Amino acid sequence: MFEVSSEAHFSAAHHLIHYNGPCENVHGHNWRVRVIVRCTALNDLGIGIDFKTLKNSLNAVIKDLDHSDLNLVFDPLSLNPSSENIAHYIFKKMEDLIDTKTCTVARIEVSETPGNTAAYFE
Q1: Spatial CB neighbours of 106, under 8 Å, sequence gap ≥ 6
Q2: What's domain 2-121's superfamily in CATH?
């Protein structure tokens, strides 16, 4: 089994609903997203998944989140735009782009500030 990962960043605002504290106010973060893909086999070049493919897929998913109000994305889903829910959202979107016979999305990590990371995996 092989694991391949890529990171990307986006900037966005949000506010946590029913949160008793300053995060209930609109504020922004420079989010870091890391996708980890598991590959059961390598191709003829010894590659599980091309980094360029992985990075392009991640960038396509976070493009709609960048410079947005995340509450506008998550309110229709009846979800708070927490790091945990953002990780789950990105995981599901990445699954649609990466799930192949030999490679699957293993984990998404989302950091809203350095040292504070939420992850989603199945």
Answers
A1: 3, 36, 37, 38, 121
A2: 6-pyruvoyl tetrahydropterin synthase/QueD (3.30.479.10)
